[in-house]
Amino acid sequence: MRIALDAMGTDLAPEPEVLGALDALKVLDRDIEIVLVGDESVVRAAVAKHGPIPERLSFHHAPDRVTAADAPASVLRKKPESSIVVGLKLHQAGQVDAFVSAGSTGAMMAASLFILRPLPGVDRPAVATLLPTIGSPVLLIDAGANVDCKPQHLVQFAHLGSVYMRRTMELAEPRVALLNIGEERGKGNEVIAETHELLAKEPGIKFVGNVEGRDIIRDTCDVLVCDGFVGNVLLKFYESVAGVIVGMLKKKLAGRDEGALFEDVFHVLDYAEHGGAPLLGVGGVSIICHGGSPPKAIRNAIRLATRAVRGDMVKHSAQDFTAGAR
Amino acid sequence: MRIALDAMGTDLAPEPEVLGALDALKVLDRDIEIVLVGDESVVRAAVAKHGPIPERLSFHHAPDRVTAADAPASVLRKKPESSIVVGLKLHQAGQVDAFVSAGSTGAMMAASLFILRPLPGVDRPAVATLLPTIGSPVLLIDAGANVDCKPQHLVQFAHLGSVYMRRTMELAEPRVALLNIGEERGKGNEVIAETHELLAKEPGIKFVGNVEGRDIIRDTCDVLVCDGFVGNVLLKFYESVAGVIVGMLKKKLAGRDEGALFEDVFHVLDYAEHGGAPLLGVGGVSIICHGGSPPKAIRNAIRLATRAVRGDMVKHSAQDFTAGAR
Q1: A71/B contact by beta carbon, under 8 A
Q2: pTM of the full predicted structure?
């Protein structure tokens, strides 16, 4: 299996990418190869700093780089030699099995949609992200790709999320919930109330009803469906609360030997644990990471990519949408 | 000043109310009187358990109680003798200056709207709640009263929130931000993008632009405007993350003498710090608390009520809406 990694994605590129890739090669299965996509001389030098170049690591040259100043929709046309476009095209051509990038989220979404194309029957591909909870992680979908959603889009997110959790997390029957402001059906705004009715009778998913904000981290569901506006606000809020609290705890514990005491607290708050967010509903495995990803998050995003490939996620999603004739 | 407190609101009523009221009388200004509204013999007995009845504490009998089983809209008709309805009517009649309840949020909103009436010019009264941050608290408005909002409603929330922060928190010029998924104007869904344009040219408020989920707890604004769906999800999520993290920390620290080490962490996470959520835009001071409020939250909600009364919040809100002819 070959995973392409954008070596020029993070704010501190290529160092976090290189360290994440090197770590992934150590801890993941031996049949996994990583292709670093970026300015080859720069990336090669960054790897060489850490020792001889591992056998399962290779390079693919992409001289250009997407920046925050680039309008996402114009990247394909204006930066065809950027690591994002080159990496996605490698994937589309079948030369790699997945693409991971911590570059511009907007550019990754736009380029993935254009190059990998939505699966037949999928109106709105969505970004999904695993949130840490006190139990197993919950997949939040959509985490920001679609800010105005109709009920049928939210139902599609439920399917995309279910297939993803089945194929990558080995859950036989993922519990799907609808993010709402009350537990009873009929609660919420118009779109959400109608979505509840649709999900309640939708075949192929295990709908467990509404989940409120207070129950998200209590491990009440495996897939949490919401529109990309709410999802994005929630995700960024969680990350910041986590960041602030962990920062405070670490400051308090500096120089003390008690960090381990708080490991389960850190665990619940550590979004880097789950690394990246796949764009679901396109014809490939495209994983989007934070610009601020540390090496651990990059490594875990690579692991997510390998799971999606191993689980044949794209094929099963395509079948799910063909079968349902949605 | 007389504050009426629903003695039968919390899940453990009347104990948290009684303790909160007794504490408030100790720590707040000496001109504050508290009227406990509820089944008088029950409430009186609960107070007597803690010693002689303080001079500035009195009772107002209300034999009935709103429960979770009561439909909010029917409370006025079906439970006219409930502590919520009796307490709000006391306020409406001018016998008390504010009413605080930890009873059913829905019933408090419906009864407050009906008994206290919306202020002229206010289309949608909204629930506002203070969120702890690493700096000064931020007022989230709407926290759940209005799940489908138009841009002009959100602009009204900005005014209601600004007046509240000016009159109760002594901020001369509260910074108003719009909750969004990006910093640039034009970001977000249709309603939010249009609201941004309206706020940018709205007189009488200090609009500082969009704030993302990640910046909420970083003390970037004083008033954060959003619809009641997003606000409610966010608020409940914050409370639950806070609850889970604080619970984990306390468990770790049980029997150790290090709780003080983490006081600022607890402080950021302690929503009880700010106690209650006022329903803004009605002709009175109506403060809604959690059903699970501990005495400290009740005491702090009483304090919020006294500040709103002292600051003549209702009068200033009414003037703001009359002046703007919105």
Answers
A1: no
A2: 0.91
